[in-house]
Structures are given as C-alpha cells and as structure tokens.
C-alpha cells in the first residue's frame, strides 16, 4: 500500500516534524525545508475526487478528501509553511521548530478532512501545537497570553465536537460538507468556526496572542488558524446571509483600532481581522464569483500578511521593540526590509500589479452584482481604510517618520530570502493573475485589469494617502503613544477576573468560618485517616520484592484452591 | 545604535516637500482622469464625477477622527493589565 493511500500530506508533515530533533545544524534546516516541499509535491499529485477512509469502531473517518476547494488551501498552506521555515532558519529552538511544523501540518490535514471527527482532531492539534509558538518567548506576559489563547482555541474545538455529536445524533452523518445554520448541532459548529475566524466580539484572542508570539512564531500563526476557519466556513456555510453582515462588520471595526494601536504587530493583527472580513463576506454572498474571491483572497492574503509580519518581525528582531512610538527612520539601516514591507503594504492595499488587486476585486464585484449596496460601500470604506492603517502606517512609522536614531543591522539573510520570495509571489500573482484564477474552485469570468477598475482603485488609494498626508501636515493625525487600548479582552482579563476574585474571597471567607467551627472535629477525622493512609501508615509502606513475591504466591495459591473447591 | 551622521535624500526637508507635491499632482491627475473613460457602474453613486476619489478622502478623514475620539475612552497605560 502506498503511503498516499493512508495519509494526507498534512499528516505526513506532522509525522516528519517529530524527527526534526534528530538533525543538527544545517542538516536540520535542510530537512525542515524539505518537508513542505515533499508535501507540496504530493499535493500537486492529488486529483479532485481522491479519497481515503479509515474505519475506527463503526465510524468511517475520511482522512483525505480532495476537491478544488481543499486543494487551493492546501497549496497555499504548504507554500506558507516553507516560507515560515526559511524565515525561521536562524533559530535553534527545537520546540518552536517542531511546533510550527505540527501546527501547519494539522492545518493542512484539517483542510483534507472529510468528516467532522477528523476535522475536530486536527482543529485541536492546531490549537495545541501553535500555543508553543507563543510560549516560546519564555516570559510571563507570553505565558499568560498563551493560556488565554489556548482556552479560547480549545473551547472552539469543544464547541465543534459538541456540535458534531448533536449533528450526528440528529442526521446520522458525520460528513463535513454543506451544513447550513438552523439546527442546534450546526449552529454550534458555526460558532466554533466563528471563534477561530475571529468574528466580531469573538476576535480579541487574535490581537492578544499574535502580538505576544515569537518573531518567527507570529509569521506561522498569521497563515493558518484563521484561514483554516475561512476554509471550513466556505465548506460548511456558503451562502449563509448572516455571514455577509458579520463579514462587513469585520472589515470595518478593526481598522479604527488599527489607527490608534501602538504595537505594530497588533496593528497587523487588526488588519488581518479586517481582511478576514472580506473573505467571510464572500462566503456569505455565496455566488461562484464570491466564493472564488474568498479562496483567491485567502491565497493572496496569506502571502502578503506573512510578508508584513516578517518585515515587522525583522524590526523587532533587530531593535527589540515593535512600538511605533519608539521606531522610525529604519529605512536607513534596513533598506531591504523596508522595500519588502512596502511590497506587502501595497499588496494588502490592493494596488494594481499586486495580489490584493486581483483577489479582493472578485469579492467587492460579487457584492455589487448581488445589489448589496451597503455592504459594497462598507467594503470600499474598509479598502480605503486598510491602505491607511496597514499600507501607510506600518511602513511609515517603522521605517520613515521621525528618525528614532536607531542604527541596526539589516535582517539576517534567511529572513531576507523569505521576504524576497513572498514579495515575488505577491507581485507575480498581481501581474499574472491567470495562474491563481486557474486553481480556484469555479471557472473565473472576471478581468481585473480594466481601465475603470485600475483608475477607480488608484483614485480610492491615492486620495486615502492624500487624507493621511493632509492630516499629518495639519497635526491632526493621532501620534503613536505608549499605550494600550481596551478591547473585548477587557471582559475576561479585568471584568470577569474581578468578579471571580470577589467570589473566591467570599467563598474562602465562608470556608474559614466553617473550618473554625468544625475545626476540632475535622482535625480529629483527618488524623485518624492519616493513621491508616498517611505516609507512614501500614498501607503506604514499601515492601521488599521478596515479600511481595511471597504475597503474590499466597494469593495465587488461594485462587487455585478456590478454583478447585 | 544611534545616528551615523550620513545624510539621506529624505533628510532634506525640501525633498519631503517634493514627494508631497508629487502626491498632490498624482491625485489631481487621477481626479481629472474621470473625464476620459467609461465606468461600468453597478450603482448610481459611482457615476458621480470623481466618486472614488472623494469617497476615499472623506472616509479616511472620518476614520482617523473617529479613531482619535475612541482614544478618549479606550486608551490606558501600557501596564494596565500588569496588576492582573
């Protein structure tokens, strides 16, 4: 039996990751880079319709289900794995290396999962593996942020499992195909996907954790978790009207936060959230063009978002800070990182000749064709806004603005290689969109480069830049300040902890009162218990092996006697 | 780590001015470009002269002003959560 008959490329990647600690030095780098390359080659050999099932008890698990939707996501996940690995080549931390590969492998395996149980297992594996990319910073703040992240991610998995079980009880099917909201089971699954997709009000784990992970960890994190959720929504809930509004809200509200956020990686996390909104909106619209747009935008987005996180990671790596208030003028000492950052910024802003231009237009046009004029206007607002806070703010405050006087070394060569390849892909997709359009789930009947589209898009963007410039010159633009902004995490970091704290002190006061009343009796009871079961009691004594053997023999003899009696 | 004393093109304020004027010029050209092509519009508003340019400018100014106002009730010290 060929390995391809019982594995998926994702499971292969996870198994291969376990062997990483056996390699040292450059060999480890080569080995790690080879894993996603093999997985990618394997995926290229898969054809829509390929399927593999394993029977466990009476349930048949579909470990591999290949169709055009799963292939697009698998391709880009494997490319993102390779780029993240190259970007992290300089680190010598087996924990991060193994965790990164298992995490991305689980995401790929989840994309190929054809049933809800396999999906659930991979869903939780992505959560468990990825938290190590946050903890690997090995300080108190990242430990706490990691715990919050883990609770929310695992919680999403619990919702998914509960939903899957209820769905199975009512329909008798575990197949992961179109689900649609409406029953308790599918609603729970929808909510599970929504948590991982950072729906409005469920979103704050994203900014909280991506700002705290390691330099290389955030690059990994940015690619997989949320886009896996986008994939699962596109698979299970296309055409769900609610998603149009959820998506539109997601595109709009995070950008207000992005404007006033000081931590530039958190700014990127907010804009990631905004980009997810476009994809979610496309799923909600649900037409062939919109779903193509979602898949194309996920593909393009993973590349430029990773690129932006790479450039900000390089800044953090060299200067030990990522606060806009401390940075500025770095173009002088990090010219290559600056250039690559600008390519990423142009791509996320959807400038013509970049990947964002050819992918986002599919979604916005689909919204317009369906006559959703409010949604269309919100998406247009979000498009202008994303240029404002990601396209301009990120490169401007890190590399230009007021010269912070910091003079550092350019990013390490492996980081530059990863950024160069990601930049080339961003531009390549923008200049030759046909290659991306060819792998989308449906036939594409859309020409991105029309005079009207190019000019209107440039108008939108350049006047957004004009607004930035005018506000800057007038001194109206809010300066970068050493600060944080309250978001929904306040609910569980402050409000709930406060309430729980009050409850706990109440309970412990009551307990102490009760204990004082019953103190003497309780102590007596405890003492007599300890007499028989405590560390020096007869039951806890250690025995020599000889006497144990004797006792075993006696017991066996009794058994034998009883048997014959 | 601090300044190497080297003079860069953008260090000269006059050059920054040039960049800004270039931006103004590009914006003016793009605005006037609405004369020369036909829009394939889905909505009536799109046919308004310079719609995308005006829209882009207005919403971005609004975005910044609203965000700035949000600071008044959302902003906290960096160590706000440290006393958890």
Written account of the structure:
The complex is a heterodimer of chains A (565) and B (84). Chain A is mostly helical and 565 residues long. Chain A has three domains: 179 residues, no CATH class; 212 residues, no CATH class; 76 residues, no CATH class. Chain A is 72% helix and 3% strand. Chain A is globular and about 100 Å long. The two termini of chain A are 54 Å apart. The mean pLDDT of chain A is 92. Chain B contains two helices and one strand. The mean pLDDT of chain B is 86. Chain B has 84 residues and is mainly α. Chain B has one domain. At the A-B interface, helix 10, helix 15, helix 18, strand 3 and helix 19 of A face helix 1, helix 2 and strand 1 of B. Strand 3 of chain A pairs antiparallel with strand 1 of chain B, so a sheet runs across the interface.
| Percentage of residues in helical conformation of chain B | 40-55%
In the predicted model, the low-confidence regions of chain B spanning at least 5 consecutive residues are: none
Question: What is the helix content of chain A?
Answer: over 70%
The number of helices of chain A is 20
Average pLDDT metric of chain B: 86
Principal-axis shape of chain B: flat
How many domain units of chain B?
1
Structural class of the helix and strand makeup of chain B? mainly alpha
Main interface: chain pair and counts:
A-B, 59 and 51 residues
């Amino acid at each position: 039996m060929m390995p391809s008959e019982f594995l998926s490329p994702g499971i292969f990647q996870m198994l291969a990751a376990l062997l990483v600690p056996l390699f040292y030095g450059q060999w480890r780098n080569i080995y790690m880079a080879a894993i996603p390359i093999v997985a990618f080659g394997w995926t290229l050999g898969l054809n829509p319709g390929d399927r593999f099932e394993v029977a466990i008890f009476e349930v048949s698990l579909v470990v591999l289900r290949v169709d055009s939707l799963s292939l697009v996501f698998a391709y880009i996940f494997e490319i993102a794995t390779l780029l993240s690995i190259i970007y992290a080549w300089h680190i010598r931390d087996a924990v991060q290396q193994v965790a990164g590969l298992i995490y991305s492998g689980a995401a790929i395996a989840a994309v190929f999962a054809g049933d809800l149980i396999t999906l659930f297992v991979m869903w939780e594996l992505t959560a468990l593996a990825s938290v190590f990319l946050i903890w690997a910073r090995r300080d108190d703040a990242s430990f706490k942020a990691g715990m919050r992240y883990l609770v929310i991610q695992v919680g999403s998995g619990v919702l998914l499992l509960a939903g899957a079980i209820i769905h199975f009880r009512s329909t008798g099917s575990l197949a992961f195909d179109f689900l649609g909201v409406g029953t308790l089971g599918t609603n729970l699954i929808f909510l599970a996907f929504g948590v991982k997709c950072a729906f409005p009000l469920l979103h704050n784990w994203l900014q909280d954790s991506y700002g705290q992970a390691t330099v290389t960890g955030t690059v990994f994190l940015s690619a997989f978790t949320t886009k896996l959720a986008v994939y699962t929504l596109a698979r299970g809930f296309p055409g769900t009207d609610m998603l149009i509004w959820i998506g539109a809200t997601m595109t709009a509200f995070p950008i207000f936060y992005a404007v006033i956020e000081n931590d530039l990686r958190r700014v990127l996390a907010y804009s990631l959230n905004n980009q997810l909104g476009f994809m979610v909106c496309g799923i909600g619209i649900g037409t062939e063009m919109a779903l193509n747009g979602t898949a194309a935008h996920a593909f393009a987005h993973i590349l430029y978002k990773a690129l932006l996180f790479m450039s900000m990671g390089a800044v953090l790596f060299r200067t030990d800070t990522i606060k806009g208030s401390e940075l500025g003028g770095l173009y002088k000492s990090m010219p290559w990182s600056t250039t690559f950052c600008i390519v990423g910024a142009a791509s996320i802003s959807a400038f013509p000749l970049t990947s964002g231009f050819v992918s986002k237009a599919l979604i916005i046009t689909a919204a317009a064709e369906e006559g959703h004029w409010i949604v269309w206007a919100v998406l247009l607002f979000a498009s202008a806004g994303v240029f404002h806070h990601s396209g301009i703010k990120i490169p401007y405050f890190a590399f230009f603005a007021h010269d912070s006087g910091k003079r550092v070394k350019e990013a390490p060569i492996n980081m530059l290689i990863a950024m160069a390849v990601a930049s080339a892909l961003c531009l390549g997709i923008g200049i030759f969109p046909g290659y991306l359009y060819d792998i989308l789930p449906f036939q594409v009947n859309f020409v991105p480069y029309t005079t009207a589209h190019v000019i209107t898009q440039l108008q939108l963007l350049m006047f957004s830049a004009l607004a930035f410039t005018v506000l800057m010159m007038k001194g109206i633009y809010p300066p970068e300040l050493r600060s944080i902004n309250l978001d929904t995490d306040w609910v569980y970091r402050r409000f709930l902890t406060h309430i729980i704290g009050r409850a706990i002190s109440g309970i412990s006061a009551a307990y102490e009162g009760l204990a004082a009343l019953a103190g003497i009796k309780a102590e007596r009871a405890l003492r007599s218990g300890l007499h028989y079961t405590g560390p020096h009691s007869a039951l806890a004594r250690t025995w020599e092996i000889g006497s144990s053997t004797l006792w075993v023999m006696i017991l066996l003899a009794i058994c034998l006697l009883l048997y014959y009696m | 780590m601090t300044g190497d004393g080297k003079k860069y093109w953008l260090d000269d304020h006059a050059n920054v001015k040039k960049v800004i004027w270039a931006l103004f010029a590009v914006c003016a050209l793009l605005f006037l470009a609405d004369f020369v092509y036909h829009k394939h519009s889905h909505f009536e508003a799109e046919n308004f002269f310079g719609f995308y340019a005006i829209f882009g400018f207005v919403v971005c100014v609004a975005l910044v002003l609203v965000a700035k106002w949000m600071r008044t009730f959302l902003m906290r010290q960096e160590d706000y959560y440290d006393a958890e």
